Amino acid sequence: MSETTATLMVDLIISLDGYASAEGWPGWWGLEGPEYLAWLDEEGKKDFTTLMGATTYRVMSSMSEEASGDGSGFSEEEGASLTGLAAMPKIIFSSTLKEPLVWPNSELISGDAVEAVRELKRTRSGTFSTLGSLSLCRSLLAAGLVDRYRLVVFPVITGKTGRERIYDGYPDVALDMVDSRTFDGRLQLLEYVPRVIDAPLTRG
Questions:
Q1: Where is 91: in which H helix or E strand?
Q2: pTM for this prediction
Q3: Where are the coiled-coil regions (predicted)?
Q4: Which domains are delineated in the chain?
Q5: How far apart (Å, rounded) are the C-alpha atoms in residues 151 and 13?
Q6: What is the pLDDT of residue 35?
Q7: Residue 61: what pLDDT?
Q8: Smallest Cα–Cα separation from 132: which of 51, 188, 78, 68?
């Protein structure tokens, strides 16, 4: 019998200069459009298990709850995307959170996240996809556990206001592109197979 192996995808949104967010800017830098939001909705219907750390869990579970109420301030599309997260299976890595977790369909793992994901990939099937959780993504990539690295690049440079630099602390990584797409004439999806490398690539 062949060994079951799940696929792990790191999934990030990013400014052109490598930030995950920026002070004073709205979510998605205010540049989300109908094509992108429709794609997010379709992705949310796929049989993914979402991985995240404690900070992302606290932020996203609060936003999901807020979006489900009246007068939340979110657009209809944003609200649907956020409330839909409640139905998705989620694994939360934290040594500080305690069970039971209030967000539906959330499983808590308190041990070492890298080793836990290594075991999850070995024993489960399907696709694991990260949500936020930059340090978790970095650790999983450095450990060689990431099968796909997917970015949606937003056309802004936030050199003054940018927060959460994505690539700080990364190893060197070679990226083989497997997919690309443009949303709303301005957002660029880029999907790669990543390979952690010990030395710069040379022509050959």
A1: strand 90-93
A2: 0.87
A3: none
A4: 7-196 (3.40.430.10)
A5: 6
A6: 95
A7: 86
A8: 51
SS3 content of the chain, % helix, strand, coil (to 5): 30, 30, 40
Q: What is the CA radius of gyration of the chain?
A: 17
Q: Specify whether the CB–CB gap between 145 and 8 falls below 8 A.
A: yes
Q: What percent of the chain has pLDDT over 90?
A: 66
The answer to whether the CB of 167 falls within 8 A of the CB of 18 is yes
The arithmetic mean of pLDDT across residues 131-145, rounded, is: 94
Name the nearest CA neighbour of 129 among 4, 12, 3: 12
- Tracing tokens 């930059």 back to the chain, one arrives at 134
Instruction: Please give the structure tokens belonging to residue 144.
Output: 């060689």
What's the one-letter identity of residue 71? G
SS3 per residue for 32-81: CCHHHHHHHHHHHCCCEEEEEEHHHHHHHHHHHHHHCCCCCCCCHHHHHH
Task: Determine contact, residues 140/130, Cβ cutoff 8 Å.
Answer: yes
79 pLDDT band, cuts 50/70/90, is: low
For residue 74, the model assigns a pLDDT of 64
